[in-house]
Design a protein that fits this description.
Helix content: 55-70%
Strand content: under 5%
Radius of gyration: 22 Å
Shape: elongated
Strand order of the largest sheet: 1-2
Oligomer: single chain
Number of helices: 5
Length: 171
């Protein structure tokens, strides 16, 4: 039996089975990525908040010691907490914070610090990449699955502009 797309009926059953497997694996993959990013972010906080010599060196080198060290630590703590909460909206926010923070870290590694910092073999750079990739996966997949995300920005017709055109309402 052929379907309108020209595939045999058996292929549709195979596709449905693959979709079911993907649907079961996605939540597991999301939690693995969330935990990976959150644990790395939380692990580095000890060094930032206790003033470990490596952390002080990094932030002195980029000219942001001590406020940058404490500020990035607070942002990373908030991101890690949000990544671990069950709310999809908060998870997206946490992933976005992690993406922004790790983008900055990677930028400083590539421009000021170098991939290897104080003979660490590039571990800090690699951890920043892992968090960036994990957070990007969580951000895109959670946002895609968040049905109500469009309610955040919804067009409102005929109001908000002098000529009666379209305006955007942000909730």
């Amino acid at each position: 039996m052929w379907n309108p797309a020209g595939k045999p009926g058996i292929d549709r059953a195979d596709d449905a089975l693959k979709d079911m497997k993907r649907a079961k694996l996605l939540p597991v993959a999301l939690w693995v990525a969330r935990l990976t990013a959150a644990l790395i972010l939380l692990q580095t906080l000890f060094f930032k908040f206790t003033g470990a010599p490596e952390s002080v060196y990094i932030f002195q080198k980029i000219g942001l010691e001590p406020l940058g060290r404490y500020g990035s630590g607070v942002v990373e703590l908030v991101a890690a907490i949000l990544l671990l909460l069950p709310s999809a909206r908060l998870t997206v926010l946490g992933a976005g914070l992690a993406l922004a923070t790790m983008s900055g870290a990677i930028l400083f590694h590539l421009t000021s610090l170098g991939v290897e910092v104080q003979g660490d073999g590039g571990i800090l750079f690699a951890m920043a990449l892992v968090v960036l990739i994990s957070a990007a996966f969580v951000f895109t997949q959670t946002l895609h699955g968040l049905k109500e995300w469009t309610a955040l920005v919804r067009p409102r017709r005929g109001a908000g502009t002098p000529d009666g055109g379209d305006a955007v309402t942000v909730r």
